[in-house]
Amino acid sequence: MKAIGRHIILEMWGCQNLDSVQTAEQALREMVDALDVNLLDLHVYPFSPVGVTGMAIVSESHLVIHTWPEHGYAAVDIFTCGAPREPQAAVDVLRRHYQPERVGVMEINRGQMDLPQHELATPTRLHPQQSRGSRTPAYSA
Amino acid sequence: MKAIGRHIILEMWGCQNLDSVQTAEQALREMVDALDVNLLDLHVYPFSPVGVTGMAIVSESHLVIHTWPEHGYAAVDIFTCGAPREPQAAVDVLRRHYQPERVGVMEINRGQMDLPQHELATPTRLHPQQSRGSRTPAYSA
Predict the structure, then answer these.
(1) What is the ipTM for the molecules in this complex?
(2) Looking at residue A105, what is its pLDDT?
(3) HSE-up of A130 (CA within 13 Å, CB side)?
(4) Active-site hit among B15, B20, B66, B97
């Protein structure tokens, strides 16, 4: 199904370097390179007492990192519309900079289009008799 | 279950005012007010030939609007950690400014903590005999 954008949601736990403005900036710049997207703007905001937010606005949408060093946790979003590379390239950059012990990834299609009518007209549900397990009735009429 | 942040993902179709920098900026400012969060930075980027990206960095995380006027579509993310108000307040602002014909909303807990041990120890699965439909075996031993 056609969609306008891809949104990768990353949950990283057990991370290093979470309170570093430099790490966030460097990671964002390398993610931009890895995805081969066009950087328009990049800002990193340190918080008190700890934590940073890093934001890269790109022509293809945005990349954002929020860190909570007190939890060893970083939330990362990679939202791209028409990026030429697979998002995995950016995940590899994050793994290198933050060395997470655990990473959770979810991908959401953004701007998902309705199915075209001709696809809707094609029966896609399995007939009950073809369902998983192919159970045969135990009786016959 | 405890989580660090709330992430509201909005899909808005059939929208008005999608190519307006002013609308994006005004909507973001009113969302910040509606959520009672602390604005750190706000930028709106117009694209050629059409479309805008608007980004508000707040102490509590971020708000972002991407628009595709050619599809009547806007993707909005409201990511907050510790916002005092319910996200619905921000959705109301968006409805007013963009007048979408259809809105899809999904909420994701970000930084979801593991269940505490005492919760894990409590059996929460239904016993098979209490499952939906409460089917009784057709035979007994």
Answers:
(1) 0.81
(2) 96
(3) 4
(4) B66
